């Protein structure tokens, strides 16, 4: 849950920037964070002191990743998507702010303790919670995703978007494979998945020990990575096609313009979108 709160903190800090300078806007993010923590972390981020603790640009990657997925959601909703599944939803709030998303079922998947904390934080902020959003408790390492989703109303014959953000680095290879297998085998024509991952070079690089220490202090363990050069073959073997990978350079071209052009963006943390191959 600490990593979920940390990502919400990043969104809250970015939202506090002047509108002309921000990459994302999340009016609900501050509901999940302590105001003093937000103020102190924002100061450290603006002064680049956080780069002494984290790989340079990792915070900005989280911001760009959030915007990239938001834009994907907007596009998919606008082109006739039937349902959306947010895997490891944490304290994500896009199910409450993407235009038109209220017209389709959204399944938020996460640990039940995280979901309880999220509901509590949103009380008085987003009330009532939208009827189209369904909370589905799942442990990716031990639970069968399909059972919980089907029970909640998921229809595998429909076109679906699976969003899997900030999760794969903390799973085992077997846990990643189980989820990808479900998406590839149990979603309708035109379905796709979007997820981020660490290139194994960053996981095994000079600062990996410090990254592992920081994440372990938040109750998480860095485990899984993929070489970006191998991502297309990796996903094709698992039933996906039309694979589009984007790294920090690509994200910078999309969003880091004008006054933001000088903001650093981490390398080795990447995003990929893949379509479910025809069966």
CATH homologous superfamily descriptor: Vaccinia Virus protein VP39
How many helices? 10
What share of the residues does DSSP label as strand, in percent?
15-25%
Provide the succession of SSEs: HHHEEHEHEHEHHHEHE
CA-CA gap between termini: 37 Å
Topology (elements, then pairings):
Layout: H1 2-15, H2 35-46, H3 58-78, E1 83-87, E2 106-110, H4 112-122, E3 133-137, H5 145-152, E4 160-164, H6 173-185, E5 192-198, H7 200-203, H8 208-217, H9 231-236, E6 240-246, H10 248-255, E7 269-276
Parallel strand pairs: 1-2, 1-4, 2-3, 4-5
Antiparallel strand pairs: 5-7, 6-7
Helix pairs in contact: 1-2, 1-3, 3-10
Quick overview:
The chain is of the alpha/beta class and 279 residues long. Helix content is 38%, strand content 15%.
Tell me what the structure shows.
The chain contains ten helices and seven strands. It is of the alpha/beta class and 279 residues long. The chain has one domain: Vaccinia Virus protein VP39 (Rossmann fold). The protein has a seven-stranded mixed sheet with strand order 3-2-1-4-5-7-6, sandwiched between helices. Helix 1 crosses helix 2. The model has no long low-confidence stretch (mean pLDDT 86).
Which characteristics define this entry?
seven-stranded mixed beta sheet, 10 helices, globular, Rossmann fold, alpha/beta
């Amino acid at each position: 849950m600490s990593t979920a709160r940390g990502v919400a903190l990043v969104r809250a800090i970015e939202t506090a920037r002047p509108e002309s300078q921000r990459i994302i806007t999340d009016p609900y993010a501050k509901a999940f964070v302590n105001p003093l923590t937000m103020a102190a972390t924002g100061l450290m981020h603006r002064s680049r002191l956080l780069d002494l603790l984290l790989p340079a640009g990792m915070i900005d990657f989280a911001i760009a990743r959030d915007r990239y997925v938001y834009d994907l959601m907007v596009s998919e909703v606008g082109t006739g998507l039937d349902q959306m599944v947010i895997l490891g939803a944490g304290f994500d709030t896009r199910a409450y702010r993407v235009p038109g998303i209220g017209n389709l079922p959204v399944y938020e998947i996460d640990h039940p303790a995280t979901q309880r904390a999220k509901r509590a934080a949103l009380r008085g902020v987003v009330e009532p919670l939208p009827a189209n959003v369904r909370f589905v408790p799942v442990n990716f390492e031990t639970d069968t995703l399909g059972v919980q989703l089907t029970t909640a109303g998921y229809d595998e014959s429909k076109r679906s978007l699976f969003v899997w953000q900030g999760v794969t680095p903390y799973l085992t290879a077997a846990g990643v494979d189980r989820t990808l297998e479900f998406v590839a085998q149990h979603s309708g024509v035109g379905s796709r998945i979007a997820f981020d991952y660490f290139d194994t070079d960053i996981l095994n690089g000079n600062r990996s020990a410090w990254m592992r220490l920081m994440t372990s202090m938040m109750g998480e363990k860095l485990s899984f990575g993929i070489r970006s050069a191998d991502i297309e073959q990796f996903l094709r073997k698992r039933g996906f096609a039309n694979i589009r990978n984007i790294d920090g350079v690509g994200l910078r071209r999309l969003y880091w313009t004008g006054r933001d052009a000088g903001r650093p963006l981490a390398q080795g943390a990447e995003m990929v979108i893949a379509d479910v191959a025809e069966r």
